[in-house]
Amino acid sequence: MTKKIVINPVTRISGFMEIEAIIENNKIMDAKTEGLLYRGFEKMLMGRNPFDAVYFTQRICGICSTAHSMASTIALEDAMKFIPTEQGRYLRDIIHGCEFLQNHLRHFYQYTIPDFVRLPNNYPLYTTEHDDFRMPSKINDLIVSHYFESLEMSRSAHEMLAVLGGKAPHNHGVFIGGISTQATTDKIIKIKSILHTISEFIEEKMMPDVYKISEYYQDYFQNGCGYNNLLSYGCFNDYKDLGTLYIDPSINLDGKVLPFKSERISEEIEHSWYSGEQKSYKPLERLPEEDMNKPKAYSWIKAPRYENVPFETGPLARQWLSGAYRNGISTMDRTIARVLEARKIVQVMEILIKNLIPNISVQSEYKVPQKAQGAGLIDTTRGALGHWIKIGDQKISFYQIITPSAWNLSTQSCENMKGTAEQALIGTVIQDSDNPVELGRIIRSFDPCISCATHVYSDRKPVKIMKVVP
Amino acid sequence: MDGLLSVCHGYEAKQRIVRNLIDKVMDEINEGTLLKKNLIWLELTGCSGNIISLLNGANPDFKYLMTKMANLVYSNSLMTAEGEDAVSHLVNVMNTDFILAVEGAVATKNNGLYNVIGKWRGEPLTALKAVKMLGEKAQHVMAIGACATHGGVSAAHPNPAKCVSVQSVLKRKVIKLPGCPCHPDWFMGTLAEILLYDAPKLDAKDRPVLFYSTLIHDRCPRRSFFDKGIFAKKLGDHTCMFKLGCRGPVTRTDCPVRQWNKYVNWPVEDDTPCIGCAQFGFPDLMEPFISYDTTRKERE
User: Could you say which of B49, B72, B261 has the minimum Cβ distance to residue A159?
Assistant: First the structure.
């Protein structure tokens, strides 16, 4: 028997998406992931002051805004042929680290936990139709208490960010050269104190919680696997004195870890609502125009590819590539890797803070070049993020953004290779097709940010039939 | 009310004011003189950053909001239910007393079809349809953040998605809390005023006077540098940011005295100009955000 299942909205993500799955004999035979929010940042950026991209592009995403301030700043520095000081890099990487912690804490507790832990259902926010909660009430209730405690922790992560970044979301600190302000001793000790509290929470609560969940949901080590192709642009790496504290740009293809070459990135549009002279584009080439009339197309998310192959990006990819965690590639491994990464980020931040020289000013008066182009590639909370900029007549003349969620939630490619998350869904056994809880759990393990993935311009979305078809 | 207002303007009272309002609400709920109202938090065409900002609120925090102040029935970012089960929460609340908080603009292009926030009985529920359906029935509608109050970044030129404000599609009073994002206290305090007094005191542009009455410039700790003509030449300088394009002189919020993220900092204290994110017209009318020569040309 064939059934079509549609889930919309997929809640507990940033933004709006739909999952469509075809199920035969309780097994997912085909799957599509679609983003449902379109604004058009790349078109909005045309003609604006290049420096403004740092604050403007943060508005792509409310949960990972710092990521965009990092990528846009690095792209501008590349265009300006400006090399930041090591102190400048430490400072902005500390801000970036705060954003990692805020994201991972919120994603694990506020977005993932409700899938596996029964939250007090006397509150309408926590009611649900499915009943696949497997933990004994004592363990369940302990994790519920951590769910509420985590609110204080993620809030503190953003407080720590604001100490150097002014405010969050949408910080003012990250800028060309490093950050705007100086890290005075009082600020440094405040950050250290907050980081210490968050570190204790991760060690004593978050880590035990994820391992406890994994014990009761062992089957989630068997689903959500995908291609095993992993990619990272690198982050917290290549410091002159400190070397690489986390991960250098690298990929995993056919079981081999290889160096990353940025020129091998392309974006395909065969199954997306765009048309152009080519089916595949390099990031700095012209943006294709939207076209809803392509018969094969089914999504506004394009298909980023590396050597024409889909890749997974994010915490599990980084943990695997850096050799820190190689248990497997699955829904539960992805979730565990995110928690392990939170711990890793604390360690990285501690080293960066230790190496700060207080009161250093890293700002000067910068000039916009007449004509230039640049790329800003960096791994951020959800994975590999790229900004590409062209400047003409001291204005932005071209802007391209390829987000981590575009990698993970991409459409099918020219050779009919499914997107990474689509592939991860296919083959999954659904226990109860009236309550297909597996779909959301698998997709959330990728931590989709649809606000990011569908920032591009679009014109219209067709009405699709949504029902469970026998 | 007036007593509370004047206290708010004192620097040391910034944390207390919202807490006081909330405590009063709590007392009334506990005494049975006030019933917990249903609250819908609707994310539309935007970055979903206002819900993140709300989670950043401390005293009152999000837990206090959802367990003590209101029945939060819907939040795309936080609710356990998904798919039509989630959308049924919206449908079920339609005929009750409820408050509607909206973040994000309303995409209108192609009848709103390109921003679908869910599906109900197989039909796409667009941002446009959802805000009209709920906005007409809600007791109060609060537009949270720049996109909801006036289109914001979602409506930035050339506005590819034809985004408009919440007010543009509703023929009723919409309380406006601009900011990119909205400060959690601005929302919590306004909600407390609604619960207590039913109608918060609003200015001519429907912003609560409690938070939006005074120009940043008037309470800026760097005002004395402005008065003496000492101006920053680059980010990171500790003097007046006016010549770097600071929008403090046209933006009305209490950022200088309230500050952000557990009251720890704010953009000018971070040695950057205010970019006017809480002013109508943001971002297009507030740009350029960073510029090193706003007045130099005239001088030379």
Answer: B261
Contact A168, A309 (CB under 8 A): no
Q: How far apart are CA A72 and CA A303, in angstroms?
A: 21
Q: Contact A5/A435 with Cβ under 8 angstroms?
A: no
Residue finishing a domain among B180, B211, B242:
B211
In whole angstroms, what is the distance from residue A445 CA to residue A112 CA?
Answer: 8
Does B267 touch chain A if contact means CB atoms closer than 8 Å? yes
CA dist., res. A116 & res. A110, Å (int): 11
Distance from CA of residue A90 to its chain's centroid? 22
Number of domains in chain A: 1
Q: pLDDT at residue A459 above 70?
A: no
Q: Is residue B206 part of a domain?
A: yes
Quote the minimal CA–CA distance from B126 to chain A in Å: 10
Does pLDDT of A243 surpass 50?
Answer: yes
Helix, strand, or coil (residue A320): helix
Judgement on whether residues B153 and B282 belong to the same structural domain of the protein? no
φ/ψ region of B267 (left if φ > 0, alpha if ψ in -120 to 50, else beta) reads alpha
| Residue A460 belongs to some domain of the structure | no
Residue B52 maps to a domain: yes
Structural domain including B65 reads 2-211
Q: Whole-angstrom Cα distance, residue A296 to residue B21? A: 56
**Best residue in B62, B71, B72, B82 to probe A by mutation, most A CBs within 10 Å?**
B82
Amino acid at A99: E
SS (H, E, C) chain B: CHHHHHHHCCHHHHHHHHHHHHHHHHHHHHHCCCCCEEEEEEECECCCHHHHHHHCCCCCCHHHHHHHHEEEEEECCCCCCCHHHHHHHHHHHCCCCEEEEEECEEECHHHHCCCEEEEECCEEEEHHHHHHHHHCCCCEEEEECHHHHHCHHHHCCCCCCCEECCHHHCCCCCEEECCCCCCHHHHHHHHHHHHHHCCCCECCCCCEHHHHCCEHHHHCCCHHHHHHCCECCCCCCCCECHHHCCCHHHCECCHHHHCECCCCECCCCCCCCCCCCCCCCCCHHHCCCCCCCCCHHHHC
Lowest-confidence pick of A438-452, B16-30, B215-229: B16-30
0.85 surpassed by complex ipTM: yes
- Could you tell me if residue A136 is inside a domain? yes
CB A26 within 8 A of CB A293: no
Are B220 and B249 contained in the same domain?
yes
Residue recorded with tokens 């990619």: A231
Question: Is B117 near chain A, with CB under 8 Å?
Answer: yes
Three-state DSSP string of A109-152: HHHHHHHHCCCCCCCHHHCCCCCCCCCCHHHHHHHHHHHHHHHH
Written as six digits, the tokens of A109 are 């507790």
**Does residue B300 belong to any structural domain of this protein?**
no
Render pLDDT for B204-261 as a digit per residue (tens, 0 to 9). Answer: 999 999 999 999 999 999 999 999 999 999 999 999 999 999 999 999 999 999 999 9
B34 and B148, same domain (yes or no) = yes
pTM for the predicted model, two decimal places: 0.94
> How close does chain A come to B200, measured CA to CA in Å?
26
Single-letter residue type at A53: A
Residue A58 within a domain: yes
CATH number at residue A241: 1.10.645.10
Could you tell me if A119 lies within 8 Å of chain B, comparing CB atoms? Answer: yes
Q: How far is CA A141 from CA A132, A216, A327, A336, in A?
A: 16, 15, 28, 20
Residue B99: its chain A contacts at CB < 8 A? none
B177, B211, B245 — which closes off a domain?
A: B211
**How far apart are the C-alpha atoms of B256 and A36, rounded to whole Å?**
37
Condensed to tens digits (0 to 9), the pLDDT of residues B73-123 reads: 999 999 999 999 999 999 999 989 999 999 999 999 888 877 889 999 999
CATH code for the domain in which residue B77 is found: 3.40.50.700
